[in-house]
Amino acid sequence: MPKKNYFVVSNPQGGWSVKSGGSQRASANTSTQKEAIEIGKRLATNNSSELTIQGKNGQFREKNSYGNDPHPPKG
Questions:
Q1: How far is CA 52 from CA 1, 34, 65, 68, 75, in A?
Q2: What is the mean pLDDT of the chain?
Q3: Are 48 and 6 contacting, i.e. CB atoms less than 8 angstroms apart?
Q4: Domain extents for the chain?
Q5: Nearest to residue 48, comparing CAs of 70, 19, 73?
Q6: Is residue 38 within 8 Å of 23, Cβ to Cβ?
Q7: Per the record, where are the segments of Polar residues compositional bias (predicted)?
Q8: Percentage above 90 pLDDT, the chain
Q9: For the whole prediction, is pTM greater than 0.70?
Q10: Cβ distance 56 to 64 under 8 Å?
Q11: pLDDT tens-digit map of 42-67
């Protein structure tokens, strides 16, 4: 079973949403980006997946792996 990746995106009705990849419905809706990121981190950690965060300008600004990172840092 492929792992679900999660995305924090701006919500057209205002606020922020946490969505899983390929899903139309949001896993969570919040009023602040900070709350959405916290929920997204929890979901991604529980599912050993990735979290991608959209900035206020619409560009994706950050991506984090929680679990089996295919490219772990050396050292």
A1: 20, 13, 9, 16, 25
A2: 89
A3: no
A4: 6-61
A5: 70
A6: no
A7: 8-34, 44-57
A8: 69
A9: yes
A10: no
A11: 999 999 999 999 998 989 999 998 87
Contact 26, 15 (CB under 8 A): no
β-bridge pairing 16-20 and 28-30: antiparallel
Q: What is the rounded CA–CA span in Å between residue 15 and residue 65?
A: 24
- pLDDT of 1 > 90? The answer is no
- Residues with Cβ within 8 Å of 38's Cβ and at least 6 positions away in sequence, in order, are none
- Beta-sheet pairing, 16-20 with 6-10: antiparallel
For residues 47 and 39, give the distance between their C-alpha atoms in angstroms, rounded to a whole number. 12
Could you tell me which residues are beta bridge partners of residue 63?
52
Tokens for 19?
Answer: 């969505």
